[in-house]
Specification:
heterodimer; A: 146 residues; alpha+beta; 5-stranded antiparallel beta sheet; 3 helices; 5 strands; 21% helix; B: 152 residues; 5 helices; 6 strands; elongated
Chain lengths: 146, 152
């Protein structure tokens, strides 16, 4: 792994438009039952602009930024060397259908751990107005021989 | 009349209301997973890593079987707490460590159980830390699974 990755900031991703059917599909896949993820009227009467995505839906946008990291020829490892060690979401507001989200990844730390390396990457996800929505933090365990 | 109202609410004049306490179980859930669940999550999330649906690929990298996506386990483990909160805006932070893989048998699947307890409480601020115990086959599969919430 290239130690100079620390503090590297990647390019902002192109906008991801959150669709209603995608919210419903993701909500079903994670066993969500809250009507605010399925029924537009229920979401609006609860004060949301549209269908509310489950909290871990942010991973779909985070993944676009992790793909940038894995595709970086300079990173010194490939996706096959990586295991997802930890995940965290810090939420300003829930993601809703109609959001146009962009994301930017920053490598915040690289530590060695029992011969492997632990890379922590923060993805800041914003809406079309540039307001923060959620920060997704992934800690990846990268095999030592990478 | 005001006395009656206080009685109805279940507390007297000047009493401090403690609706929650540390260690209290606030939500529980039980989720049977099948291979179908994994294919559905793969499609919904875009994570098509073949270790989540192909036995031969899982075996070739030394795994005991096809595994559930860690993010599927994380995604379903928060559902009982969301039901309790009643409003997804109340969840401000959610983090987990992926400590043990969940093997999903092609015939019998797997079952994930979730118990959510209050880990830390700040009633003045109206916030709490919720600690999740997430298990499959009686072994915990997520470590340090914690949420920050605004109390309902």
């Amino acid at each position: 792994m290239n130690p100079e990755l620390t503090e590297r900031v990647f390019a902002k991703t192109s906008p991801y438009l959150v669709g209603r059917e995608k919210v419903r599909e993701f909500a079903r896949a994670v066993f969500a039952t809250d009507p605010v993820s399925f029924n537009v009227e229920a979401a609006r009467s609860a004060g949301h602009a549209d269908l509310v995505a489950p909290p871990t839906f942010a991973v779909v946008v985070q993944q676009l930024t992790l793909d940038q990291l894995f595709a970086d020829g300079d990173a010194g490892f490939v996706v096959e060397d990586v295991v997802h060690g930890e995940q965290r979401f810090i939420s300003t507001r829930p993601i809703v259908a109609g959001d146009e989200l962009t994301a930017r990844l920053r490598v915040t730390s690289i530590k060695s751990l029992g011969g492997n390396a632990m890379l922590t990457a923060e993805t800041e996800i914003q809406d079309a107005a540039g307001e923060p929505v959620v920060t997704a933090v992934a800690t990846l365990v990268v095999r030592a021989d990478a | 009349m005001s006395g009656e109202a206080a009685d109805e609410a279940g507390f007297g004049e000047g009493a401090t209301v403690h609706r929650y306490e540390v260690g209290q179980v606030v939500a529980e859930g039980r989720y049977p997973l099948t291979r179908d669940s994994l294919v559905r999550y793969a499609g919904a999330s875009g994570d098509f890593n073949a270790i989540h649906y192909r036995d031969d690929v899982a075996a070739s990298v030394g795994l005991p079987g096809v595994l559930a996506h860690g993010m599927l386990t994380m995604g379903l483990a928060v559902q009982p707490v969301l039901q309790w909160l009643g409003d997804p805006s109340r969840l401000t932070e959610y983090g987990v460590r992926f400590t043990r893989p969940v093997v999903v048998d092609p015939e019998t699947g797997a079952e994930i159980t979730v118990v959510a307890k209050i880990g830390q409480l700040d009633e003045a601020a109206g916030t709490a830390r919720i600690d999740l115990t997430v298990s499959a086959a009686e072994q915990t599969v997520l470590g340090k699974a914690q949420l920050r919430v605004r109390l309902p």
